Amino acid sequence: MRVLIVEDEPDLLGSLLQAVREDGYAADGATDGEEGLYKAESYEYDAILLDIMLPGLDGWEVLQRLRKTKKTPVLMLTARDAVKDRVKGLDTGADDYVVKPFDVEEVLARLRALIRRSASEAQPRLEIADVVIDTAARTVSQRGELLTLTAREYALLEFLALHRGKLVTRTMLYEHLFDENDNTLSNLLDVHVSNLRKKLGHDFITTRRGHGYSIESAA
Amino acid sequence: MIFNSIRWRLQAWHSLILVAVLIGFGVTAYRVARGNQLRRIDQELQQRLMTAFRPGPPAERHGPKGPPTQGPPLEGPHPEGPHPERRPNDFGHEHDPSAWRQHMQEVIAHAGALEAGQTNAFYYIVWQRDGTLLASSPGTPRDVPMPAETETVEREAGDRPGPITRTRGEFREFCLCFPFGDRALVGRSMAPDLAAMHRLALWLFTAGAAVLTLGMAGGWWVATRAIRPIEDISATAVKIAGGDLSQRINASDTESELGRLAGVLNSTFARLEAAFANQVRFTADASHELRTPVSVILSQTQTALSRERGAAEYRETLEACQRAAQRMRKLIESLLELARLDAGQELMKREPFDLSRVARESVELVRPLATERGMQIHCELPPVDCIGDAERMGQVVTNLLSNAIHFNREKGEVSVVARAENGTAFLTVADSGVGIPPEDLRHIFERFYRVDKSRSRIQGKTGLGLAICKAIVEAHSGSIEVTSQPGGGSKFEVRLPVGEDGLKR
Predict the structure, then answer these.
(1) Distance, CA of B172 to chain centre
(2) Average of pLDDT values for A180-195?
(3) pLDDT grade, residue B84 (50/70/90)?
(4) Closest chain B residue to the Cα of A99, Cα to Cα
(5) Which of B157, B174, B195 is where one domain is finished?
(6) How many domains does chain B divide into?
(7) Is residue B375 domain-shared with residue B317, that is, in the same domain?
């Protein structure tokens, strides 16, 4: 899962990026509206955290322009909690909003809910064969036993599970699992996949040679 | 209490006055009518007595039967006045009392005969001097006392008592004294007249009550009409007191006193609403400004505390929190300063100072910042004497200079010029920056107004600097204006009156 955070206050941006990354997401930051819009249009993000008061383009403008091309879920960060501001945000195309000052926990929870909804999953629990993925607690269990996964492994599994039954290309995985600061070598992806297979069983993830990976929905 | 309402009081006073007027009128009318009635009865009585006892052609006055050819002379209140030439001894009967008595009895009998059969008949009585009844006509009530001499109202010339008029029960009587002490009395019952007077009183009372009712109804109507605008005003004021400041009094009539009052109140309400809206906006802006640093502290600490960190990471977190706290402190200080300026609590000093010296000090204060950005500060600062608070004016100049540097282009220029002209001191701070868009110019001194909604580009700016400048300059009875050409820089000009009245008390 890859998230874009557009926030002009560097200290706030820094801590949000850290929190989101520690929650297992890949995260990019932007400090003004133009940069934010550019990144949002250029990469495939799973969600965008967008502040309203921004230098250059403000949050409304970024959202309005972004909606012409992309349906990426947007969580607005607003310092004004007047009803008309919230209504304006939602009407412009935001999917949710958080009023400053917020608790990091709440932002993360809303982010998870947004990503889940955009993958058409109402349930936070994904059950595939004997594997249960709890996207709220970010845990994976097999036959009732909790598995220990690294953040990257979990992110990879969750992404594949949310797109189960479909082919997930390596490009998609790179786009969604790594942010611009990651200098991951391409074979690192294979390392994560192989580690997952060791923990979940070899057949859980299917390799489509030359294309990518997939998890069969009825596997 | 309903009786404390103006309408009720108006009504009460109105009714009270109306009742007083009606009672006064009724009583006067009744008394006049009664007086007239009495006078009429008295005249009638007097006339009867005169007719009965005055000598005159028998044929005319008493018919063929004929009364005595010579009656006694009439004394007392005669229409033609007393007859001074007549003396008691002129009367022949003086020498013959029995003839006189005889004569009297005839007169009475005759007069009584005339009255016989009439309703409300007159009665006649004659007493001798010693009080023995000489004669009385039929129909005379029983036990009519002889009028005592003490009842005499007036005495005529000589010792003879004048005529006596008296009311005895329902009877009105008129009594004359004859020269030798005999007394003749004519009287009649006033019962029909009293009944008429009762009817009059009743009629007056009824009419009065009707007029009072009408008057009260009219008064109520007038009071209601007069009070209606007040009730409108009151109802609106209640709504406004309840918090709906957008309410206005419906003042269609703008000419009357109440209409003008409504107009004044409406404009007061409008100002109140504007002030209130301003206050609300200011509070919202202030809390909004505080939200970002609080967000920083919350997110930094929550993220840092979510797991074990190294010393360096904790240090970073603490530094970020410190920056946020500093920002909040700056904002709070500015807010407090504005609040003090607003409340007028900030006692401005009032002493002479050199505006140019103050400006030079400010320039030295910001010079490092300018040098850092490769900017030149041009000063043209001849001595300019002012009166006021040098420290606060220094704050104004420093603020303007720091803005000029902040919003300037790299290696730009800033100029500070002071001059005095016609009793006004001018201080101009100009920059060579990008300028301010025309649509923002008139808002530039508003609290928290920012031309660029950016925060990072104006780190350390609270958005209150120019508002504080304006408040300080205005406390000096001065003014601050801005002119700007997009791309050509901005120019802030402070004007201060030089004279003694330079500082608002």
Answers:
(1) 56
(2) 75
(3) very low
(4) B291
(5) B195
(6) 3
(7) no
As a whole number of angstroms, the distance between CA A25 and CA A75 comes to 15
Residue in chain A closest to B320 (alpha carbons) equals A11
- Residue B91 is classified by DSSP as S
Helix axes B465-475, B390-406, angle to 10 degrees: 150
Interface contact flag, B292 A15, Cβ < 8 Å: no
A12 and B295 within 8 Å at the Cβ level: the answer is: yes
64-103 in A: which are within 8 Å (CB) of B? 79-80, 82, 100-103
Identify which of B284, B299, B455 has the shortest CB distance to residue A8.
B455
Is there a contact between B324 and A101 if contact means CB atoms under 8 Å apart? no
Between the CA of residue B486 and those of B408, B436, B438, B458, B463, what are the distances in Å? 12, 6, 8, 19, 21
Hey, are the CB atoms on B296 and A12 less than 8 Å from each other? Answer: yes
Distance CA B185, CA B49 (A): 8
- For B425-451, what is the mean pLDDT? 84
- Say which CATH number the domain at B265 has: 1.10.287.130
Q: Taking all residues of chain B, what is their mean pLDDT, rounded to a whole number?
A: 79
Q: What is the pTM of this model?
A: 0.58
Which of the 8 DSSP states describes residue B462? -
> pLDDT class for B120, splitting at 50, 70, 90?
confident
> Residue B428 and residue B414: Cα distance in Å, rounded?
10
How large is the ipTM?
0.77
* Residue B248 belongs to some domain of the structure: no
Q: Averaged over A11-35, what is the pLDDT?
A: 89
Domains with residue ranges and CATH for chain A: 2-118 (3.40.50.2300), 125-214 (1.10.10.10)
Closest chain B residue by Cα to residue A59: B453
Q: Is A58 on the interface with B (CB under 8 A)?
A: yes
**Which tens digits make up the pLDDT trace of B267-299?**
888 888 888 887 887 787 788 788 888 999 999
What average pLDDT does range B415-442 have in this prediction? 87
- Please say which residue of B289, B314, B346 terminates a domain: B346
Contact status, residue B424 vs residue B496, Cβ threshold 8 Å: yes
Q: What range defines the domain where residue B114 resides?
A: 2-82+90-195
